[in-house]
Design brief:
Elements (H helix, E strand, L loop, with lengths): L2 E2 L8 E2 L16 E3 L7 E4 L3 E4 L5 E3 L9 E2 L5 E2 L2 E6 L7 E5 L4 E4 L7 E2 L9 E6 L7 E5 L11 E4 L7 E2 L12 E3 L7 E3 L1
Antiparallel strand pairs: 1-2, 3-4, 4-5, 5-6, 7-8, 9-10, 10-11, 11-12, 13-14, 14-15, 15-16, 17-18
């Protein structure tokens, strides 16, 4: 559920108009500000929405997941977990999902490309754009497995056509997020 305040948080109004009631949304559905346009925001269910004013949304994608999945506890998966907009080009938008799908658009949402090939089928905890190279992005994943030698950070330098693991000396544990330093190319922080 999305709410909006125009008075510094003294009161809030419902701001979820246009978000499909049959969409699948995670308990921590992603909601991001476009760094290139102060009036543009994005919200993720299993589809991607762009704001239409302050209190309503328009869908700009189809299902960007691998469809609904139900686990043994009855929880439904197949929701977006991460959205990121390039600070260099607001037309480049990335999404990640809880079922291992990563998509990118280079035309502001007119079309999306599934760039999941080369990534493990794991919960995508974050997709982050590089602040210096438009074609570069980073993906972090969770999914700890005993005795599995697997990277949890991946980088693309060609808009997702290929991915390379960035394991280095990181422990074999889930990675929740990544931050690329805004003024020092190549300096990354992971959580």
């Amino acid at each position: 559920v999305v709410y909006y305040s125009s008075n510094g948080g003294s009161s809030f109004s419902y701001a979820g108009g246009g978000i499909g009631g049959s969409d699948r949304a995670g308990w921590n559905a992603p909601h991001v500000q476009d760094p290139t346009d102060p009036d543009r925001r994005y919200f993720g269910t299993n589809r991607l929405y762009r704001n239409s004013g302050n209190t309503s949304w328009s869908v700009i994608s189809g299902d960007l997941t691998d469809g609904p999945h139900q686990n043994q506890n009855g929880q439904v998966r197949g929701t977006l977990t991460s959205i990121n907009v390039s600070p260099l080009d607001g037309q480049v938008i990335w999404t990640g999902s809880d079922d291992g799908k990563v998509h990118v658009t280079t035309n502001g949402g007119l079309s999306f490309t599934d760039v999941s090939a080369g990534l493990p089928v794991r919960w995508i905890t974050s997709v982050r754009c590089d602040p210096f190279q438009r074609e570069t992005a980073y993906v972090t994943v969770s999914g700890f497995r005993w005795h599995e030698d697997m990277a949890h950070v991946y980088r693309t330098t060609d808009l997702g056509q290929t991915w390379e693991p960035l394991g280095g000396n990181l422990p074999q544990a889930p990675v929740n997020d990544l931050l690329a330093h805004p003024t020092r190319p190549g300096l990354l922080f992971v959580a």
